[in-house]
Amino acid sequence: MTTTNLILIGVAVVAIFGAMGAFAIAFRRTSRDTRPDWESQVEPDARRADQSLRGVRVEPPVVAEPEPEAAAVTTAEPEPEPETPAEPEREPVGVTVVEVQRVVEVSPEEAGITRRQFFNRALGATFGLWGAGLGLGFLAYFWPRVSGGFGADINAGNVNDIIGELRDADGNVVPLFIPEARAYIVPAPARLSEQFEGRQVEAAGLMALYQRCVHLGCRVPWCATSQGFECPCHGSKYNEIGEYFAGPAPRNLDRFVVEVTDSNDFIIHTGTIVETPRAPAPSVEYPRGPSCI
Ligand code: FES
Question: Which CATH architecture has domain 153-274?
Answer without folding.
Answer: 3-layer Sandwich (2.102)
